[in-house]
């Protein structure tokens, strides 16, 4: 399938459990990748979710249980996640244009001294550095102001009209550096008790902490800019490896289903959901979708989007009367709403298959993207 990174195949293939309906938009290439990874040595089980799409090192929107650690199944953006925060700002007090101007502070990122002391408090400064903490990054990372449109009163304290922040970011250049600096034996997978495996796990855990702090600093900056307080609803990671049942569970673009709540990001032009999730379906490997998933790759979006000045200006508005702040023309096209699958269809599949139920539906009011370019591999 033309992916030089994919490892050697073994005779046996692990069980693959697809969690999507026959109507789901799933590329054949993504299913080929799923099958190929299922045949890697030591692979015990594989699950694919309705946001499944092809990735650089293997499919995205999937979970893999193996007897060893495969760093390529976590990818370079170790610890990437979605954090949902509730703001104590009522919607009627929000002035979108003013908020857009105020959120421009996100482009500068967190104060380096404050970021360094927050990182020092985490006790991991000797493992990886604090530089870059509190910045969104490129690619499909974002800080989005959302309004709750619908909520299930018995399941959440969120109410229609509440404002939230959804922050999607990861370990930025740190994760990419860790990935590039790995001992070459990673291509065959690491035994967890090997020196290389132990070193990877230590760096992975530091990158996870870095990414989580990054999301918190971004939310703090945004809340300060909007003169309100933010309280965390949930922060779920979707690129990680964790121990499970004596084996190693890799999540690539899949969130953990063991913490009760998970955001399902839609797109800048579609709703997102807060889901109540359950780890009661063993074949799902304690995992669930975290987004709608890519429908069209970045390169092909350039051919799908018209490029007149007014077409590009239209891409900075969404159908909910909201705004997209993105100075990078390429990113504006590559991340346009049609680049992603329909989140309602993804949500329906997860619900029908007993993995999650929607408890709130949120629409984007301001999607703030970095003006900068992605670090290679950062946003997969
Ligand atoms: N609410 C928004 N969701 C978005 C936006 N851009 C992308 N997305 C969704 O996020 C996930 C991220 O996927 P990952 O594999 O890179 O972690 C993606 O599947 C989209 O559904 C946005 O601007 N706003
Ligand atoms: Mn991500």
TrEMBL record:
Binding site residues for Mn(2+) 1: 141
GO annotation terms (biological process): RNA processing; RNA repair
A molecular function GO annotation: RNA ligase (GTP) activity
Residues given in the record as Mn(2+) 2 binding sites: 168, 238
Active site annotation, chain numbering: 290 (gmp-histidine intermediate)
Pfam family, one: RtcB
UniProt entry keywords in alphabetical sequence: GTP-binding, Ligase, Manganese, Metal-binding, Nucleotide-binding, RNA repair
Catalytic reactions on record: a 3'-end 3'-phospho-ribonucleotide-RNA + a 5'-end dephospho-ribonucleoside-RNA + GTP = a ribonucleotidyl-ribonucleotide-RNA + GMP + diphosphate
Keyword S-adenosyl-L-methionine: no
EC nos: 6.5.1.8
Binding residues annotated for GMP, in chain numbering: 140-144, 238-239, 272, 290-293, 369
Cofactor binding mode and count: Binds 2 manganese ions per subunit.
Cofactor field: Mn(2+)
SUPFAM superfamilies: Hypothetical protein PH1602
InterPro entries: RtcB (IPR001233), RtcB-like_sf (IPR036025), RtcB2 (IPR017510)
PANTHER family, alphabetized: RNA-SPLICING LIGASE RTCB HOMOLOG
NCBIfam families on file: release_rtcB
Protein known as: 3'-phosphate/5'-hydroxy nucleic acid ligase
Lineage of the organism: Bacteria, Pseudomonadati, Pseudomonadota, Alphaproteobacteria, Rhodobacterales
């Amino acid at each position: 399938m033309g992916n030089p990174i994919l490892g050697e195949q073994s005779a046996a293939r692990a069980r693959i459990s697809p969690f999507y309906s026959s109507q789901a938009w799933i590329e054949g290439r993504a299913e080929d990748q799923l099958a190929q990874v299922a045949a890697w040595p030591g692979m015990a089980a594989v699950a694919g979710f309705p946001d499944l799409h092809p990735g650089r090192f293997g499919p995205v929107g999937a979970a893999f249980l193996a007897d060893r650690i495969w760093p390529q199944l976590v990818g370079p953006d170790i610890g990437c996640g979605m954090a949902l925060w509730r703001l104590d700002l009522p919607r009627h007090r929000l002035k979108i244009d003013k908020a857009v101007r105020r959120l421009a502070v996100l482009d500068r990122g967190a104060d380096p001294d404050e970021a360094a002391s927050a990182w020092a408090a985490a006790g991991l400064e000797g493992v990886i550095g604090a530089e870059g903490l509190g910045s969104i990054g490129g690619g499909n990372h974002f800080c989005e102001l959302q309004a709750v449109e619908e909520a299930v009163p018995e399941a959440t304290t969120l109410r229609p009209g509440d404002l939230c922040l959804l922050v999607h970011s990861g370990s930025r250049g740190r994760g990419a550096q860790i990935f590039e600096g790995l001992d070459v034996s990673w291509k065959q997978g690491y035994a967890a008790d090997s020196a290389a495996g132990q070193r990877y796990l230590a760096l992975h855990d530091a990158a996870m902490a870095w990414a989580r702090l990054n999301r918190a600093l971004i939310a703090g900056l945004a809340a300060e800019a909007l003169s309100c307080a933010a309280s965390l609803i949930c922060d779920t990671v979707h690129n990680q490896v964790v121990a499970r049942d004596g084996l190693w569970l890799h999540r690539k673009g899949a969130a953990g289903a063991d913490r009760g709540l998970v955001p399902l990001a839609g797109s800048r032009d579609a709703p997102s959901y807060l889901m109540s999730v359950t780890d009661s379906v063993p074949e799902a490997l304690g995992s669930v979708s975290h987004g709608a998933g890519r429908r069209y790759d970045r390169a092909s979006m350039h051919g799908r989007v018209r490029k007149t000045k007014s077409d590009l200006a239209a891409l900075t508005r969404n159908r909910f009367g909201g705004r997209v702040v993105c100075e990078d023309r390429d990113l504006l096209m590559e991340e346009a709403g049609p680049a992603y699958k329909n989140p309602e269809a993804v949500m329906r599949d997860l619900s029908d298959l007993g993995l999650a139920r929607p408890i709130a539906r949120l629409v984007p009011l301001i999607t703030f993207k970095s003006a900068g370019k992605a670090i290679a591999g950062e946003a997969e």
